[in-house]
Design a protein that fits this description.
This protein has two domains: about 80 residues, Roll (Nuclear Transport Factor 2, Chain: A), CATH 3.10.450.360; about 60 residues, Nuclear Transport Factor 2, Chain: A (Roll). It contains three helices and nine strands; from the N terminus they run H-E-H-E-E-E-E-H-E-E-E-E. Strands 1-2-3-4-5-6-7-8-9 form a nine-stranded antiparallel sheet, with helices on one face. The N terminus is likely disordered.
Length: about 160
């Protein structure tokens, strides 16, 4: 019986905590060549910190987290090396434009906990993504630089 209990604990520990059950960490050698070539062309001085393969609604994508020019970035490519997403991970809402901060503070989500703030550069429209949670409820908001709410995604 103790053995079953430890196996259950091990399974819980291995489960993803961020809700991305369809993602897999990769080594650089496991990333398709077109993806690596596109990444190195886009960021010749960038230093990759992790690689993942994710199954999303749009199909399989390859996410690379990196540092370049003192910034923490996330990029996504399809298997052919086409750039799908390009985001800068911000340390806090304070790094977003004042209009974005003000719009968020005036929203119905202002009391929620901020999980992550990103400057979304690709795809267009460019904007600022704010990931939030309140208990088990999750929301992602996308504002333009002037503070206009472009998208609200409840998870």
């Amino acid at each position: 019986m103790k053995k079953l209990g430890w196996m259950f604990i091990a399974l819980l520990a291995a489960a993803p905590l961020d809700g991305r059950a369809n993602s897999e960490e990769l080594k650089e050698a496991d990333v398709p060549r077109p993806v690596l070539e596109a990444f190195k062309k886009e960021y010749p001085n960038g230093k990759a910190t992790s690689y993942e393969r994710e199954q999303e609604e749009k199909g399989v994508v390859y996410e690379i987290k990196l540092t370049a020019d003192g910034k923490n970035l996330q990029v996504e490519f399809d298997a052919a090396g086409k750039l799908l997403e390009k985001e800068e991970v911000l340390l806090s809402l304070e790094e977003a434009p004042p209009a974005v901060k003000s719009a968020f503070q005036g929203s119905k989500y202002s009391g929620w906990t901020i999980k992550k703030v990103k400057h979304v550069m690709v795809p267009k429209p460019e904007g600022y993504s704010i990931g939030l949670f309140n208990g088990s409820a999750k929301v992602k908001l996308l504002f333009d630089a002037q503070g206009k709410l472009l998208k609200e995604k409840v998870k």
